[in-house]
Protein 1
Amino acid sequence: MGKYYITTAIVYANGMPHIGHAYELVTTDIPARFQRMKGNDVFFSTGSDEHSLNVLKEARSRGKDPGVYCDEMAEIYKSLWKKYNISNDDYIRTTEERHKKAVKEIFKRSFDSGDIYKGYYEGWYCNACESYYSESDLDEELNCPVHRIKPEKLKEENYFMKLSKYSGRLQEHILKNPDFIQPETRKNEILGILKEGLRDVSISRPGRDWGIKLPVDESQTVYVWFDALINYISVLGFEDGSGEGFKKYWPADVHIIGKDIIKFHCIIWPIMLMSAGIELPKKVFGHGFLLNKGEKMSKTRGNIVDPDNIADVFGVDVIRYFFASNITNGVDGDFSEGAIIKRYNSDLANDLGNLINRSLNMVEKYFDGKAPAYSEEAADDAIKNAADKADTLWERFEPKMEALDFSGALAEAWGCIGAANKLIETEMPWNLAKEGNTGKLGSLMYVLIEIIRIVSVAAAPVMPETAPKIWKKIGVEYDLRTIRMDAEMKFGKIPEGTPVSKGDPLFPRIKDE
Ligand code: MSP
């Protein structure tokens, strides 16, 4: 089996977690778990971006040493990700030695290849997004287009990176590798920028203490984005390019990031890598933004959802399922309690929850709580079709998961649940029981149990707490760390006589208030 390296963006350490951060972590954790369950050797990294000037300012405003403040923030994020069952293999912080070492190495490589030169930067700088802007990028009131606040006018000596030199090569790479930037809208955005031509970018700031000093000039620190992007290789132990982890896992199979930082990841990062003689990541996927009732979440609007609190209200798996099923990956999506309750009641309480309750109740009643035998002869076409739908789910599910289309993949799985629920209505097992048609009744029950099993395996990367609870009810002993989805998502795996028990309902209906 192959390797699979997947990353999230690293969060700025100067603010509390935001539901948008949780969205990104969950939608990265799902493919990470999925790839492990396909038998791949996965490395999943996340972390914090600590050399931002805003981090220093925030620490100072609290009267704290920035290092101590970053330690505290990293703990807050790490414990939240634990709560969300994020299965990251490492957590990189840009103040760590292993990271600083890699940044210096990459800077030196580009410097030695003549791609970094000294010059003057004169223009605008938005401290909130830590980004340089030309006047034409600003809005009519000369505000930052993202934060709508006045950027700072700068004139300073900086080191620059020759982006312009690589513009053609990058364009060619994007066109030759149609999967490199996903979804298509983001790819077109980047191709549009490249068409207009690239300006060289400043990659250092003078007179700063908070940051990594340039290996060629101690009076300057590395620009926070040049620094932060290198996390994707420093977390692997880049060293001087000879690190074991780097050799094993690079290039990344996918960087998952938000649409706001696509330019850094699809222009600056690939050019940094080209200049340093390192292979490019295979894919950058720019997800959409979570909105609150259609509006951008922001401190000023006071409408930011706290991911810690919302997980306490609904449970982590419900939030994870909501992210995956209700939001089309790659476009903006609404996040509200009303929408969560609606999705929960329809998909989890009604569809999946009812299927489990009704089916296992009947197996307890008619077959003494033991999985009955399946017989092709006794089953009718409707039962056989449902069995077939579950048996072939993997073929429809896998390509959608590979394409990071989680809502599409889950819709395929829920299609099997729908078929099973319909089968109960049309076959009327209570009548089969009355008639004493045990062969057909048993085959029907067997198919229902198998659909529950196959769908719960499909849902495991999304709901890693719930799936094992379902497995317990149907008497299967899967281990999340070792289960192979491709092998298990096949019809007919549960042996006759396996004990099943309905137990307590997993998804009691929520009264929508
Ligand atoms: N530190 C940089 C990333 C450096 S990566 C080399 C940064 N940090 S951030 O904390 O502002 O954002 C972290 C991630 O969260 C980004 O991918 C960003 O797009 C994402 N989100 C922040 N708010 C979001 C929403 N409202 N919705 C979805 N994701 C959003 O950018």
Note: The longest strand covers residues 116-126.
Protein 2
Amino acid sequence: MPEIVIKYSLSSTNAYAKKLADSGKNAVVVALKQTQGKGRLGRKWFSPKGGLWFSVILRPKSASLIPVMASLAILRSLKKLGVKGKLKWPNDVYVNGKKICGILSESSFSQSLEYVVVGIGINTNFPLEKLPKELRKTATTLMEEGVGANNMELLESVLLEIKSLMMEKKTKIIREWIGNAMRKVSINSEKLSVGGLTDEGYLVAKDLKGRKKIITEGDIRLRRPF
Ligand code: BT5
């Protein structure tokens, strides 16, 4: 196990972990709460006390499937708690159609890849009222799903699963991802069905006419039923 740094409050565990990584350290950074938790594309991640907010410093050869591995590690760990999660590209974890976890992966390159900081936020032990009103229809927490979780045990499980996924074959990882992905989505209002992932972690989808598309960035929305 790497060194685990636990802080009561941080602006963002990713920001703290990046500083450690820049000084050559490897660690897992946990905060009981974050005051400026970060989502992707400059968005906010609300991180009240009770949730599991942490960042892992990794130094892999390639960063491409790291968020995919992280999402699978969470899925496997939730399964051990009897919770069935589903994946939404690029790397959200949903339970009963609502977001329970987000992943923010940030890479640093000099000549080549130096490190990846994978930030993971899992809504565990707090009620939905701790999140802003506008998120209460789209988000859920383990507590809200009637599941009690020990944050440190969940952390240990996710870290062990990431470690084991990093030794697994790409094809196996991609197959597991597809098997757990939500299939019917839309991007920029275009309806698509999810078919798979490329080796780089891009989304392979088909439009309603059966034309294949590779989606490299952006946000997808869910179409119901999933
Ligand atoms: C994410 O971004 O989902 C990545 C979130 C990563 C958070 C972790 S916590 C530890 C580490 N340290 C950090 O500072 N960050 C990482 P994105 O796909 O952009 O989704 C952000 C959107 O999710 C927001 O715009 C809200 O709509 C919604 N959201 C915010 N907080 C939420 C929460 N706690 N639960 C569910 N949805 C939330």
Note: The chain has four helices and twelve strands.
